[in-house]
Backbone:
């Protein structure tokens, strides 16, 4: 399987491009509107056909490039059914599989950062987990808006992600310290938030007092339209 990881530096968002080397069929996870030209150029240069744009959740810190990619490349869009969006081609639920060539991503619901948060898992012996803002490297997403829940996030990560093999590579939605990836084993052992008890984690998240995301009033309405502005 072909794999590339791209950074949007303003919001520190990771975008992931995966493809079947035999067929050229590809999916992209969490594209950002401002970097759509970069993503398209890479797709064209590599001779790939973009089949799917997948979101891990409705983002509050950037506008998705999903609509622009669909308009220019004809791909389909997938977002959690819990987001309730009319603009998607496929409303995804837990256990769904999104295929591209001979490969597939399994949809795993990991709510808590938002109600509609999803993670995506690859098949095969070298499994990758794309966890969006649910599980970050040595951290996790905030839980104080968009129907977030610290308790749900804690339970979802322990149930759906920490139950995976230790060597599963974790690819988060963001990193603010220049780190590209982690593993399930590392995060289960070293994540300073998620190694706490659930009660201590809930108390910690309730006391963060984080500022309101700067772009939330622009990003969320646009993302409820799949990034069409």
Residues:
């Amino acid at each position: 399987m072909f794999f590339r990881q791209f950074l949007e530096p303003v919001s520190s968002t990771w975008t992931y491009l995966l493809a079947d080397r035999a067929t050229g069929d590809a999916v992209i996870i969490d594209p950002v509107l401002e970097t759509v030209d970069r993503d398209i150029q890479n797709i064209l240069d590599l001779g790939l056909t973009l089949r799917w744009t997948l979101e891990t959740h409705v983002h509050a810190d950037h506008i998705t490039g999903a609509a622009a990619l669909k308009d220019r490349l004809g791909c389909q869009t997938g977002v959690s059914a819990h987001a309730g969006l009319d603009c998607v081609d496929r409303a995804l639920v837990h256990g769904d599989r999104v295929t591209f060539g001979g490969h597939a991503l399994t949809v795993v619901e990991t709510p808590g950062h938002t109600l509609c948060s999803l993670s995506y898992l690859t098949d095969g012996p070298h499994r990758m987990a794309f966890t969006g803002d649910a599980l970050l490297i040595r951290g996790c997403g905030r839980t104080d808006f968009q129907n977030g829940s610290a308790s749900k996030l804690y339970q979802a990560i322990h149930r759906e992600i920490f139950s995976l093999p230790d060597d599963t590579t974790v690819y988060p939605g963001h990193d603010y310290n220049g780190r590209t990836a982690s593993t399930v084993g590392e995060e289960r052992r070293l994540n300073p938030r998620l190694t706490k008890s659930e009660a201590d984690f809930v108390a910690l998240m309730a006391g963060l007092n984080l500022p309101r995301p700067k772009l939330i009033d622009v990003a969320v309405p646009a993302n409820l339209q799949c990034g069409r502005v």
